[in-house]
Amino acid sequence: MTAIMSPANSESTPAQTQDDRDLLFYEGRLNRPTKAKTPELERSGRLRHVIFSGQFSVDLLEELAGVADAIRKLSKHRSGQDFLINLLHHKRAMLYFTQPSTRTFLSFMAACQILGITCNEVRDPQTSSETKGETRFDSIRMFSSYFDLIIMRSPIARLAESCAYLMNDLERSGNRSVPIVNAGSGADQHPTQALLDIYTLQRTFNFSGPNDSEHNSRFDDLRRLPGCENLSKGLAGKTYAFCGDIGRGRTVRSLALLLSNYPDVRLVFIAPNHPTLVMRDDLRQALAAKNVRFYEFDSFEQQLDGRPVIEALDALYMTRIQREHDTGDDAERYAALDFSRYCLDMDLVSRMKPYAPILHPFPRDQHFGEIPQEIDNDPRAMYFRQARNGMWIRSALLAHLFDVDGQILRYFHREFSA
């Protein structure tokens, strides 16, 4: 039987806390390339832990989207709801959210409820034994004693990944081990946000409409518009723009890495010229290694394909400036920046392509004003649908983790496909 080495056995200095030593223990595994880590996060060709967006292949994204579509359609019927809620009624999930969250927390809660999973939560470490000196790793191992799944959100980078390795060590030694789902970890990754972003883009770029028929469709109508003659379905071959806090935006990083898996995409990053806001070197290197074409601009008016980028993009992902991460030096250097250049207005939106969706991971900042409320009624404003899509795609992800996605698809095709 493989012995479990306690993180407490690693060398440390007196200034380090036990949590610091716990993370240091896994440093060697954390610093490996993504491809070297992925096999450890799978079991029998399926996801075991969900830690970073690089785990999602294009094929898996398509599979999950199909399951999510089936779940959302089943949920419209009482018999479908009854089927779903009985699938995993014997499972329990811990939502361990020690970083503030509204949409991610409620979305996961709703996803669990759709599948009948019982949920419990810890949202404030002050209400847990961590106030008595318990380490986060001890908390996680304790949760695994009571629950079948741990969904965690933390301000500490790489904590979720380290917890996944802890679970693997426990599994190898014959101890109880459960899946870990990263619902946001520091400034590095937010894989399930990227998953719902991709799902929103998948549904948007299907170009279907309620009045589609065998004689005409929304897609046909769009292709008749000037400049849209070569429009194609799907995520490949399109230009995606990200605007705002690129350097600290973990949702931007996760989605950009997912989009880089699709052929012939171009990624545009629009950010103020400030060292904490522009794209980080690790993302540049990751995109360059995959031969993805990317551009860094400081304005919507910079030229791409001989025209302003606001007119050339196929999708726009807006973000707020994440002031909660500011240092005193940052605030001083911001004084020289014109942040209005990174906010949408009705004139800019009117110049976008007629099908180009506007996404935002939320919350949006009412003081910064990156997306004014008057844009909400534009048919291209997808951010509220985007948030609702999170409930469906996270349900599909949980179904995949517990290996009931096949049951869902079989039931749907048998009972509801007509």
From TrEMBL:
<dbReference type="Pfam" id="PF02729">
    <property type="entry name" value="OTCace_N"/>
</dbReference>
<dbReference type="InterPro" id="IPR036901">
    <property type="entry name" value="Asp/Orn_carbamoylTrfase_sf"/>
</dbReference>
<protein>
    <recommendedName>
        <fullName>Aspartate carbamoyltransferase</fullName>
    </recommendedName>
</protein>
<feature type="domain" description="Aspartate/ornithine carbamoyltransferase Asp/Orn-binding">
    <location>
        <begin position="237"/>
        <end position="400"/>
    </location>
</feature>
<comment type="similarity">
    <text>Belongs to the aspartate/ornithine carbamoyltransferase superfamily.</text>
</comment>
<dbReference type="InterPro" id="IPR006132">
    <property type="entry name" value="Asp/Orn_carbamoyltranf_P-bd"/>
</dbReference>
<dbReference type="GO" id="GO:0016597">
    <property type="term" value="F:amino acid binding"/>
</dbReference>
<dbReference type="InterPro" id="IPR006131">
    <property type="entry name" value="Asp_carbamoyltransf_Asp/Orn-bd"/>
</dbReference>
<feature type="domain" description="Aspartate/ornithine carbamoyltransferase carbamoyl-P binding">
    <location>
        <begin position="48"/>
        <end position="202"/>
    </location>
</feature>
<dbReference type="GO" id="GO:0006520">
    <property type="term" value="P:amino acid metabolic process"/>
</dbReference>
<keyword id="KW-0808">Transferase</keyword>
<dbReference type="GO" id="GO:0016743">
    <property type="term" value="F:carboxyl- or carbamoyltransferase activity"/>
</dbReference>
<dbReference type="Pfam" id="PF00185">
    <property type="entry name" value="OTCace"/>
</dbReference>
<dbReference type="InterPro" id="IPR006130">
    <property type="entry name" value="Asp/Orn_carbamoylTrfase"/>
</dbReference>
